[in-house]
Design a protein that fits this description.
By secondary structure, chain A is an all-beta fold. Chain A is built from no helices and eleven strands. The mean pLDDT of chain A is about 95. Classes of the chains: A mainly beta, B mainly beta. Chains A and B meet through β4 and β5 of A and β4, β5, β9 and β10 of B.
Chain lengths: ~120, ~110
């Protein structure tokens, strides 16, 4: 069974810092990995999706990397802003051969607070 | 383009009552999912559907039933609500590549 872990569970940083959020998974037979943002009381917004054949994806100040062999992904946020405060979730999708329903397995999330 | 829409957004139930949560998507997606989110637990899959007329159990299906009579709608039912079903429920649909989520339904069972 795929297990996804996110460390740390909570993080507080001053504005302007660069930061890294970590995601690890136990089964390396993944199809892709997706990073989401969740604001309090809201739904999930997709930030970045990395296919298993890719090493990283970038969108603005966000950069996500993937190391399948070690079962790890990181989300790097450059020059953090108070507006980045939210919970960040990573989700892994196994290959269709073992995951006919194309289901996502989620980590518990990292709650980020960026202080002005 | 509305994407994935969940109704209702909030609901309070008494133990033993029943209710149905509706998820509607306008993107013609085959795959649809119901998750629950509890503090510190992340999102856990309740049931899913790979197409109209099909449903399957996820990780935590007990106490829930689902139906997918139309491709665009995925219904989640609670026949006899219990306090343990207090949670935030999310519906999702997906393409082959990416998943899209609704805004969530906050359910409290007292």
């Amino acid at each position: 069974k795929q297990e996804v872990t996110q460390i740390p569970a909570a993080l507080s940083v001053p504005e302007g810092e660069n930061l890294v959020l970590n995601c690890s998974f136990t089964d390396s037979a993944i199809y892709n990995l997706q990073w989401f943002r969740q604001d309090p009381g809201k739904g999930l917004t997709s930030l970045l999706l990395i296919q298993s054949s890719q090493r990283e994806q970038t969108s603005g100040r966000l950069n996500a990397s993937l190391d399948k062999s070690s079962g790890r992904s990181t989300l790097y946020i450059a020059a953090s802003q108070p507006g980045d405060s939210a919970t960040y979730l990573c989700a892994v999708r196994l290959t269709p051969m073992v995951n006919a329903g194309n289901m996502l397995t989620f980590g518990g999330g990292t709650r980020l607070m960026v202080k002005p | 383009n509305a994407g994935v829409t969940q109704t209702p957004k909030f609901r309070v139930l008494k133990t033993g009552q029943s209710m149905t949560l509706l998820c509607a998507q306008d993107m013609n997606h085959e795959y649809m999912y119901w998750y629950r989110q509890d503090p510190g637990m992340g999102l856990r899959l309740i049931h899913y559907s790979v197409g109209e007329g099909t449903t399957a159990k996820g990780e935590v299906p007990d106490g829930y039933n689902v139906s997918r009579l139309k491709k665009q709608n995925f219904l989640l039912g609670l026949e006899s609500a219990a306090p343990s079903q207090t949670s935030v429920y999310f519906c999702a649909s997906r393409t082959q590549l990416e998943a899209f989520f609704g805004q969530g339904t906050r359910l409290t069972v007292v």
